Amino acid sequence: MNKLLDLLRGDTEADRVVPPTGFTVLLTLASSAAMAFLAVFVLALALSAGRQASAWEDALSDTATVRISAPADELEAQANAVETILAQTPGVGATHRLTADEQAQLLAPWFGEELPLDTLRLPILIEVSLDGEGPDPQGLRQRFAAEAPGAVFDDHGRWRAPMIDAASGLKTISLIALLLIVAVTGVTIALAASAALAANGQVIDVLRLVGAEDSYITRAFVRRFTLRTLIGAIGGTVVGLIAVALIPNVSLDGAVSDVGLRGFEWLLPFLVPVGAAMLAFGATRFAATRRLAEVS
Amino acid sequence: MMQKQCDMNDVPAIELHNAAMSYGGRTLFRDVGITLAQGSFHFLTGPSGAGKTTLMKLCYGALRPTEGRVSVFGEDTGHMSRDEIARMRRNVGVVHQDCQFVDHLSVSENVLLPVKVSGAVAEDLDANLSELMGWVGLTNLADHRPAELSGGERQRAALARAVILSPDVILADEPTGNVDWEMSLKILNLLIELNRLGKTVLCATHDMSLIRQAKTRVSARVLRLRGTSIELAGAEL
């Protein structure tokens, strides 16, 4: 804590003794800005993926569909039997038999608006709202097999699982990408600091010769690189936030939507510059400690 | 308190006990035992490559002996931490042959470096600096960069930097190596003045004329590295 306070307080004398090394200034600023920009994007992607997974889970978890395919003369009777069974089954809430118009609407993306439904033999679809844990699917299927053999109970698990898996996978990949960004940023700053330390080898030798403690030398480098990284990361974060704000919402019938940040999530990217500065603090201290160990 | 003061004064400024130094299988010297009493003046001489600079480095903790031990005011440098070594160097001013300056700082800023890094709060710092720059004859060059100085001026600037914290020991490694005879005498005069102020001086040089000149004015002992051992040089100088 004291070290951080010392860092913020600064030491203009130490800053003056260690000259800025041209290319490392640009390297640190540019890399921290670029990494912060990417971090904001990846963070937005991870949060969106997590949100999408939850949305898909919530949207489909409390509904099921019964599809009745039977010869034309039995179709209506089996549909009625299914409705009766559903009405008697615990865990089943409201049911709704899809009208011809609603079925046409569902098929429109594949067959167009002008589909002549009356010429096709379509199954009857019954949308089922589930209460609590929902019905026992095995028991329900057995009753359907006995009383309406053309009915198939679909709890959407077959569709839901891969979508949730995909969203979760995207979230995991985003988090891995975030970790890689952190690692690459740390390594880049450590390399830039090492280069600056090497370029200032004579200064370090002189400082040790005249009685400078390691903390004095380290402080000058750590402060400089931490501040540069902070400035670069703030710039990258701001640009990243603007870019995220400009991402258009793409909605393909609910399949992909809501990419970006929502509500309090807009505050999270502001942790990126803070994290980057802490990373720079650690990476530069590590590089400085290693370099100083080589100086007597 | 008085007893303690007397005891402290009895402690040698620098002491090497059976010190040996080897590099890559080559022994520079071994079983070196020397004692520099406080306020003494010593020259360290020997042919090039004999290990003068290495021995000097042992004296300010830049190197540790491969065998034996080195003590500075009774403290074994081998047991000192890096920070303790740094603090010890504030009491041991070092002048290198190649001077070693921070090139982008002015001469006066370089001279002030030990004060800055030690965090010492010195009263009348400007007046002291001015006096010190006058003492080494660099008043008019205080704002110049080290690269703009001649060899002798750089040596005197390095000497000013070495003494600004008023250390008890001055180690000068070939301080006259790159300067003409006139400048060598000026630097020698400064070292003698420091010794007269009670400072312990160890000056490494291969310049026998300089040593002979010094011996006419100050009670200096001459240590000579020969082979892998060190000996006290006698009247043949």
List its traits:
heterodimer; A: 296 residues; alpha+beta; four-stranded antiparallel beta sheet; 10 helices; 68% helix; 8% strand; B: 237 residues; alpha/beta; Rossmann fold; 36% helix; disordered N terminus
Detailed description of the structure:
The complex is a heterodimer of chains A (296) and B (237). Chain A is of the alpha+beta class. Chain A folds into two domains: 2-57 and 161-292, no CATH class; 70-149, no CATH class. Chain A is 68% helix and 8% strand. Chain A contains ten helices and four strands. The model of chain A has no long low-confidence stretch (mean pLDDT 83). Chain B is an alpha/beta fold. Helices cover 36% and strands 25% of the residues of chain B. Chain B is built from eight helices and ten strands. Chain B has helices at 2-10, 52-59, 82-89, 107-118, 125-135, 151-163, 181-196, 208-215, and strands at 14-23, 26-36, 41-45, 67-72, 75-76, 92-95, 169-173, 200-204, 220-226, 229-232. In chain B, the strands form two sheets. A six-stranded mixed sheet of chain B has the order 6-7-8-3-9-10, with helices on both faces. In chain B, helix 7 links the parallel strand 7 and strand 8. In chain B, helix 4 packs parallel to helix 6 and helix 6 packs parallel to helix 7 (181-196). The longest helix of chain B is centred in the last third of the chain and has 16 residues, at 181-196. Classes of the chains: A alpha+beta (296), B alpha/beta (237). The A-B interface holds A 13, 16-17, 19, 202-203, 205-216, 292, 296 and B 57, 61-63, 82-83, 86-90, 94, 96, 100-105, 109, 113-114, 116-118, 161, 165.
How many structural domains in the coordinates of chain B? Answer: 1
Please work out how many helical segments of chain B DSSP would assign: 8
The overall strand count of chain B is 10
Strand order of the largest sheet of chain B: 6-7-8-3-9-10
